[in-house]
Write a structure and sequence with these properties.
globular, four-stranded antiparallel β-sheet, 3 helices, alpha+beta, single chain
Length: 94
């Protein structure tokens, strides 16, 4: 089983850095590229960051994709966010 991860993509490399620095309360996180990968030992932690990305999509041009199983990526959008959150809580009930 792989470690669940979140892949962030943006046309503006600064958007990812700005978003992550605000989300993680100014911890030193520097991503100079248009993408980054964050790994999560506890997949439920994905819920808060996914919700925040989608809630702030008017400020940051970031497209999130989650990877929970090998070679399977799911694009997270405003339309499917609630279903993905439900799925995460069902699949990882701890």
């Amino acid at each position: 089983m792989i470690t669940p991860n979140l892949n962030l993509f943006s046309n503006s490399p600064n958007d990812i850095n700005l978003f992550l620095s605000k989300f993680y309360s100014d911890k030193i996180i520097k991503y100079q590229n248009e993408n980054c990968r964050l790994n999560f030992n506890n997949p439920i932690e994905l819920v808060s960051i996914l919700s925040s990305i989608i809630d702030n999509n008017d400020k940051y041009n970031i497209t999130p994709w989650i990877n929970l199983d090998e070679n399977t990526y799911i694009k997270v959008t405003e339309d499917n966010l609630n279903e993905i959150i439900k799925y995460l809580y069902e699949r990882y009930p701890y």
